[in-house]
UniProtKB/TrEMBL annotation:
This is DUF3592 domain-containing protein. It comes from the Bacteria. Pfam families: DUF3592 (PF12158). Residues 43-129 form the DUF3592 domain. Keywords: Membrane, Transmembrane, Transmembrane helix. The keyword Amino-acid biosynthesis does not apply. The keyword Metal-binding does not apply. The chain crosses the membrane at residues 7-28, 132-155, 199-219, 231-252, 437-457, 463-484. It comes from Kangiella spongicola.
Amino acid sequence: MKKGSGCLTVFGGVFFLAGLGIFIWGLLSSYDVWRAQSWQPVDAKITSLELVTSTGDNSTSYGVKGSYQYLYQGNSYQSNQINFYPGTDNIGSYQEDLYRKLQRARNNQQSVTAYVNPNEPSESVLDRTMRWGMLGFQSIFLFVFGGVGLGIMLWSRWGAKALQEVGALKESHPEEPWLWRKEWQGQYFKNTTKNAFKFIAFFAVIWNLISLPATIAVIHEGNLLKEPLKLLVFLFPLVGLIMIGVAVLYYLRDKKYGESTVELQQTPLAIGGKSSGSVIINGNINQQEVMLTLSCQRVVRRRTGKETRTTTTIIWQDDQRLQAKQTQQNEYRVDFNVKIPEGLPESSGKNPNNKIEWVLKVEQKQKGPDLKLMFELPAFVVAHRLDDEPLTEDLFSHADNLQETAKGGDWRYLGIVESYNNYGKEYYFKPFRHKGLGIATFLFGLIFTAIGVGIFIADTSWLFLIAFGGIGLLVLLIGVNVMLFRSRIITSSGVLHCRKGALIPKTYRFNTAEIDDIVRDSNMSSGDKRYYHVAVKTTAGKKEVIAKHLLNSNDVDDFIGQLKSDIGYR
């Protein structure tokens, strides 16, 4: 284990030193530019000039080589230092612009200005421009290579220590895998989002330090309208500002509710049995009713080339509103009892690229930062806690009285506008009910579309237009659908009418005799939320969705029950 840790440390050290070395090399050029600002200007004559090109990986880089003569304090000197950026590069058009400027002076037999070091007259330079774009590019190596290398070194040390702790816990509790994690010892579990703002803030700082120099360089170079592809660079500081805003929100939430915990009466949660516990909320809440959601989810991390993608699939989820009882000032307690169906997977982190997590989420809308807590809890099959009684659909109930079930779903929480007209009872699902999800999806699609179109305009690349533009347009349309989708359902005795759609609504009519069932289903999730839709299944084998993008399964089930009651469905 120590040997593996040492190898990782050496490997990370190579990355760190490489990134640090390239950045220091870039700083030396910037230091020379800064020194040259006080050098003395003299007239110089160009004796040779060459534009050096280097082609590779479908790109061409440029550099300027040459020599010139000048007089300083009666003495003649010759130098071949054109600028402080030797070699070739394609960071902007600096090298080409400099060559054209010097070539024009040479063709017209004009003198150029050289800047001479008064303390060392043999040292001079023709161009002393600070290249912010080059400095920004070199800083990327520090934060990417250096950051990755430092992360590998720290992770190797931390990982070796964590593996030792896990090994010791496995030896102590060979038949109790829920005791193999340090944070699962005992009956109290901490909020997993606590201090998350530190990670987000750190990442936001790194992101902005990398993106701002390049943005400043693009602004300094100008020609934004002539080269519209440059405008894409402004997407990076925009993302940086959004991340800073998210970090501030997480900080305020952590300051208000960060010390909240979950207490389980028995550890772990019993798959196929009953479990009791309490959520202890440290912080003031505006309402006594709190939403609890228990989810079993699979987290898969895939690496494709240089890209790593993480997807979360919700395997099972149940939610319920429960009453919070104030125990003391700024402290509330939510007692619950949960029955988990058999056959669900146990908590597992053996493979970090394919994990099973059981997460309890606690939510309530607040003025200022909303109450939103997440707790990862252990869930396993425990033989002596299996429940012989059939599990009901209402899986949450009050822990203080197991016979008293918690408040069931309430369709009025779905944001439905209820009214009556000449045709019967009307339920209207307004557009813009999920602004955050819709706007985020729309902006993501817009960015991808803009990248595809921008690259196509600049380079006439159909591949990028189809790949980025096509995917972006699809995601953009999904965002429009989430924001604008509306549904109007009218019920009367024996008949259900529905008019639904985003841009061009369609109308449907179902008689009770042709309705086989009205069901809840789900084919969409975002993060830790599962979105449901209501569909009518007909006796002819068709299935038509009549309401979409609904949260909280028990509320949706209550609404389905209301529809069935209205039309007299049996």
